[in-house]
Specification:
Elements lengths: L5 H33 L1 H12 L5 H37 L6 H33 L11 H30 L1
Helix pairs in contact: 1-3, 2-3, 3-4, 4-5
Amino acid sequence: MRDESMAVRWGDRLLGFLVTMNLVVAGGFALALVASGVWERALLAQLTSKYGGQVEATMLVWTMRALVMAGIVAVLPVDRCLRALRGVVASVRMGDPFDPRNARRATTIGWGLLAIQLLDLGFGLASWLIVRAGADAAGWQPSIGGWLSVLVAFVLARVFAAGVRLRDDLEGTV
């Protein structure tokens, strides 16, 4: 029985939009990385002017580049999560939420979310280093919700796998 509910249709559209936007963000990060090289002198001059030599401007530029590169790396697990979730939504739309592939998709989402959380820890370390050097940085704290999402994804993978087994057992008895 196909599920053509508004929530499922709009969820699929939203996920498609997010996949596209994730690629746009990757392009933005790549441009920022290139721009940091092209306008490195101006960037160094601006940082030196702002902090008056109290902060090592070259270290800040390389830290910013590392953060931009981490953003580029983060695009991959985000893409994998979004595409896997889109696959789950497609199976729900087709009326088969306990498609055996959904257990693998939920596991993929779990690993993707774990990668994102590990990258976030790296962001926290970079933020701490920037502040320790005496420069301004965005505040950071670990994402409890993010870590719980990792756990939920792996648990849901087991739920999907159990649902497939139960459905297969039920079909075998009929």
